[in-house]
């Protein structure tokens, strides 16, 4: 009798082991599958996007997953091609910082149909229903902060704007600034030029305003690389009066100038580290079917000479 009992016990143990292996393979093993992320930013010729990507990459690597990063170099057509290439690599999540807010929509709809999650970071797209989540700085308030600081320091001002009209984040910053000064006739917008947010394009853009004979004493720039281009233009043209520059980003270069010179008045600081962390955090929530917000707005804070000592001028915040 004991022989048959032992045999039955062995059979029961084998069946139980088979069931355990099945459960492990069917349920637990799905969570250990390597996840593929694809990221494309408007340009990597900006340390801001490198800082965002570094935060994402650190978390992805710690999970044993993979991140493919692409640089379209401000070319919307190239960015569309890169997205299609990333899809062909079998990505589970697309992280996109759009070169243009609208030209990307058609391609993103195809990505969505393929069942790939889409997270838009830093600059929103024109049709925000396409994205599963949008993670941005409070860009409108960044412009408001700079305008309010300018109005506190100067009784009146003639203002030149350096813009990027095809990036909604930049448009929001400019609108925040313009709306804040609009009802006060002591502050006048006297000229504006588009420069795609690039230092090398900001210099000739401000040169163009100067060559038109337009007199200004404040330049509001959509970002810090633009502020550096504006500064180069002002020095190149040897303007005979002080010109005060505001930027947006809180980049190491601008913080250093704030700390050591009078050439920059202020910058409304973004946090690329926070943007990166929020982006990858929501990505994993999506993949693990957890609740998440479809819109995440990261606050900005004005950095001036009065509070520059609170910040590390050698890196991003």
Automatic annotation (TrEMBL):
GO terms for molecular function: carbohydrate binding. It is found in: Cell envelope. Keywords: Membrane, Signal, Transmembrane, Transmembrane helix. The chain crosses the membrane at residues 7-27. The keyword Hydrolase does not apply. Residues 42-291 form the Periplasmic binding protein domain. GO terms for cellular component: cell envelope. The keyword Transit peptide does not apply. Pfam families: Peripla_BP_4. Its main location: other. Signal peptide: none annotated. Belongs to the bacterial solute-binding protein 2 family. This is GntR family transcriptional regulator.
